[in-house]
TrEMBL record:
Organism: Streptomyces vietnamensis
Biased composition (Low complexity): 47-57
Name of the protein described by the UniProt record: Uncharacterized protein
Residue ranges of the region described as Disordered: 28-57
Amino acid sequence: MTGQLAFVESPVQLLNVLEWAHTQSTAPVVGTTDGAPAGPRLPAPRVPTSAAPATDGATDATTLTVVVLSPTDPMSRGQLRRMAQLARDQGLTVHWQEARNGRGALVRTLRELARPLRSAERVIIGDPFSRYVQLLLTLFAPRHLTVVDDGTATMEFAAQLGRGERLVRWHRKGSLGPRELVLAPVTTLARRKLAPTRGRTVEIFTSLPVEAPPGVTVTENAYAWTRDTFGPPLLTGGADLVGTSLVETGVVDADHYARVVSELARAHGATRYFAHRRESAEKLHRIAVETGLQVVRPELPLELIARRGPIGRTVVSFPSTVVHTLPLALAGTGVKVAVIDIAPEWLRATASPRAQGFLSGITGTAAHEVDRLTTRATHPADRLEFG
């Protein structure tokens, strides 16, 4: 494991590593500051654009090794298994690491990855907020570091890095708990390893509208690999809804969420609800019973599911990465993407004070092709207004 080393913990991270590998040699730079150089470009792995297995020659030419730090969640593991096979089919080397399996998993993982980490010329990570990745970052100082999207948290990471703040997920409360206090030194050191220096370049490879922190290169992720490999999709009538884990993360009230899903389904003639991999079985059962929607647990990231089809002519989503990524993945297909605003009264009392502003920012910066759906509070339920 030398050359280029990627650490992924979610299916979307692995998808975006594939996108990075596909576009590395030609991706346009869309933002830098301080006149900092983009850093030397390493030879890009030869990633075939077909879904057929790569030849032995393609595998030998690949200098990128993907290490899957496997999560414990069954849905995430299943999607990651399928994404890992897609990556292998495209000629990448994939190493599955049971990083959370048992008491000795952490020590075993650190022991196995220490040497390849120290020898890697470039390290690619998908979640700079991950405690696991932060711990790995304390073991090495790569010459080149790339951060790929793992949801809208990329926007918060870029903002916090630019302001010199400690790294905290946007939906977390401001105060530090006992676990955060113990890990604070690791987070502080990791933040320094994520910042550019004279000896280290930092790149953010993203489809999101982020402002480049000082010295950081921002490279556009246009989902070229996804479009080249899959589709165009067959379009169905009506609409599809895209779920979110905002209830599970303690941000949105469950009753408000269920009511709005029902309103959206009726207003748009939706028949399917694409569940987020972190949504609870109890919530999904409630949605199926109360709305009559067919709940679908995707086997791959939604960008690939939508591109392969079939997909509704309208896709309605709560604030999430897909309001930025789906218009790119589905460009030229005629699919319309819409995003629903999160009203302040939906938020739980336990939600972070930053939640409303962050979610509004996601909606407000959505692609121009995305329709915005708003709510107006009434009694006894909120009323949806579609623009």
